[in-house]
Amino acid sequence: MELYLELSKDIRFAEGLKSCMNCGICTAICPAAEFYDYGPRIIAGIVQSKDEKRIEELLKSETIWYCGECMSCKTRCPRGNTPGLIIMALRSLSQELGFFTESEKGRQQLAIKRTVGENVVYKGYCVLPESLIPELHPELGPVGEWIYENSEEVYKRVGANYKGDGEGALRKIPQESLDEIYRIFEITGGFDRFDKIEHFSKIKAETMGFSEGEDDYSDYVNHIFTTNNGKHNRQYFHSHAKL
Amino acid sequence: MKREGKIQVWKDYQKEIADDHYFYVRSCIRQNFFPGSEQTFLRILRSELGKDIYENPHHTTCSGIGYHSDVVPFDTIQTIVARQFALMTEAGYKNLAVSCITSFGIYGEIIETWKEFPDELEKIRNYLKKATGREFEIPQNVAHASDIVYKFREDIANKQKFPLINQQTGKPLKIVEHIGCHYSKMFPDKGVGGAEFPNVLVGMIESWGGEVVDYPERRHCCGFGFRQYLVMSNRGYSVSNSRKKFESMEPYKPDAILCNCPGCPMFMDRWQYVIEEMEGKTYGESGQGIPVLTYEELAGLVLGYDPWDLGLQMHQTNCEPLLDKMGIQYDASLKYAGKDGKLIGKPMMVGCGDLEM
Ligand code: SF4
Ligand code: SF4
Questions:
Q1: What is the CATH number of domain A3-97?
Q2: Chain segment B297-340, per-residue pLDDT in tens
Q3: What is the pTM of this model?
Q4: What residue ranges define each of the domains in chain B, with the CATH number in brackets?
Q5: Which of A133, A212, B166, B235 gets the most CB atoms within 10 Å of its CB?
Q6: How far away, in angstroms, is A91 Cα from ligand 2 center?
Q7: Quick check: ipTM above 0.90?
Q8: CA gap B273, A143 in Å, rounded
Q9: Residue whose CB lies within 8 A of the most ligand 1 atoms, among A26, A27, A46, for a mutation test
Q10: In whole angstroms, what separates CA B177 from the centre of its chain?
């Protein structure tokens, strides 16, 4: 498979890369580049080189998972490129080919599919109060915990219609509408993406010594959700780089 | 420069915002963290401004967080968005009012894609028809909910009960604003003031008597980063970017942070608490943190709505310092009550720092 050719079939890629002059303005404004060992200028350069070997390395790398898709780079690129969109095309292809399981950050896609992805299809929301479990979200603080434990009352107090029929915040999405979303996922490739994430993740989980268990690889999901090898940040990179 | 030339230049930074008859689409994050804000927006539009705004219970998430964390493909989100447009078309509306900046950016991206690649539009029409039997028109006007509040900011000012004035000093309150990246960084002409002069929150603050305070990292991302927050082991990215903003705004001693996006106020509110827990550092003058508000909450306070109707009890960083400065009376004993004043437990701790409740 020619990787560059595959990438260029993605409309976001056509929109995202016109011609890069490697000026680095995107890197200067990028919040991910401040935090991670990452630079959108380098991504644009590698892809533009059409070097298949380097593109394959990129698809298997940690690097493509560092971007926050804030799209700050779009406003500033003097050539009208959007590295954030190039990243989206790379991430799609990486999942398509199963390369995402080769990196710690890429493997996290399974955890996102199992939470946000499944919420979209089966609940009609990306996030729901019942998914904001305090142990998984300590940053939501004691107030978050109070909301979680008293959700029905708290949401009612501010006028939401939590789990209710009819309109309003957090209403229950009618089943016939969820059925439509389900069919949209079937027809447009949404479930194909989900299946690929599951398929390649399970192979990886087995090679890493996890088993299916009773709970569909939940140990593996916990592992990818919480593991951080500490080698992703800029600081680490600069103090360990071979000059 | 001649007057006509100037008018032309500024045209690029202005935005047409529909005057009435809106089809409302909600935000996942707003509904979870600030549902009172959506409620307040509808209340202001319907009872203060007499506008027609319609919500169809069958609309769903746009799936934007799934799209920007790359588990939802582009074709899928385009078709989900097309379905929202179909519901709007069927109800006889042409103006979309969007509660979420992520969605707002996505609507912009998709409509632009369809303009540039008409085949893509045809493909999505077919997908939607096949999946649901529905057909749709592209909205004539897409406004973010804050655009609409901005448009009617003077009408709100005319009814204000509590202007943004420090009642103890008589001086305007100092407010820093955060626009949210997807509001106008992607499609500058879709936002009030574009990417260079985003005026949507500035306009509200100034009309309601406050003073906007500039600070170096004003346009920096809050650090949501989608997957960078969703996955626990990535959250260092998120808190670090918010911290960069707090450090940058701190010397200007802001009385409040005003946000445009659903996610940003949640992060700016909660990360202040986390930074206090992790490093013992508290921002804000009185050691209580800097109150973080949504623009609907601020509008509600200006109009004299009960702070607990607005949902300020759902914030971790206390908003009371701001209420006190504005001279707003509130019943502290009802802050954590449920519906109809029913007593439910209180949070173990509120605020940043060890303020006992
Ligand atoms: S700002 Fe644009 S031209 Fe400059 S390095 Fe980034 S992508 Fe290339
Ligand atoms: S979209 Fe990604 S590459 Fe672009 S500025 Fe944001 S984090 Fe950086």
A1: 1.10.1060.10
A2: 999 999 999 999 999 999 999 999 999 999 999 999 999 999 88
A3: 0.95
A4: 15-145 (1.20.1050.140), 153-334 (3.40.50.11810)
A5: B235
A6: 14
A7: yes
A8: 10
A9: A26
A10: 11
